[in-house]
Amino acid sequence: QSDHAFGYHNKKIEQKVMQMGAQKMLYSDCFYSPEDFWRIYDKRAYDGLKRKYDTSGVFKGLYEKVVKRK
After folding, report:
1. DSSP string, 14-46
2. Three-state DSSP class for residue 10
3. H helices then E strands: how many in the chain?
4. Is the distance from CB of 10 to CB of 2 less than 8 angstroms?
5. 27/48 Cα distance (integer angstroms)
6. Closest by CA position to 28, among listed 45, 15, 44, 11
7. What is the rounded distance in angstroms from the CA atom of residue 29 to the CA atom of residue 48?
8. Cα 69 from Cα 67, distance rounded (Å)
9. Which of 22, 28, 67, 70 is the 20 to 30 A CA-CA neighbour of 5?
């Protein structure tokens, strides 16, 4: 058990990974702001692929799936 709020340690890891110019794998909880998330993961490339392969907009966006999944 921790005295810190939920996600505290994940947020610290995300900050450090960003400082190092690296990318955190998206297998665990993520707490990025939309701006930080899309600064790391190429939004323009993602949007192009989303338009191409999800023409009806049926599926959630990557940020919604990864960060706002709760």
Report:
1. HHHHHHTT----TTS-----HHHHHHHTTHHHH
2. helix
3. 4, 0
4. no
5. 23
6. 11
7. 25
8. 6
9. 22
Amino acid identity for residue 42 in this structure: D
Residue pLDDT, tens place only, 12-32: 999 999 899 888 888 778 889
Please, which residues have CB within 8 angstroms of residue 30's CB and are 6 or more apart in sequence?
Answer: 10, 14, 24, 37, 66, 67
How many residues make up the chain in this entry? 70
Phi, psi for residue 58 in degrees, rounded to 5: -75, -35
Task: Kindly state the tokens that stand for 32.
Answer: 């990025």
pLDDT digits (tens, 9 = 90+) for 35-57: 999 998 999 999 999 999 999 99
